[in-house]
Amino acid sequence: MLSIFHETRDVFVLKDLEKLAVKKGVVLQSVKEVLQSLVDDNMVHQEKIGSSNYFW
Prior knowledge:
Layout: H1 2-8, E1 12-13, H2 14-23, H3 31-40, E2 46-49, E3 52-55
Antiparallel strand pairs: 1-3, 2-3
Domain Mnd1 HTH: 1-56
Protein name: Meiotic nuclear divisions protein 1
InterPro entries: Mnd1_HTH
């Protein structure tokens, strides 16, 4: 899933990441957990702006 961020160098919301991760072979139910793990390990940044969480 980390490759999504490296390939595009873009900013995503969770909904967009779920769609892209499924295409990469990640199970939909585990996307949020994997993403949180990447954020916890400082491999992906997360910022809450308004009511949305953005990841890059």
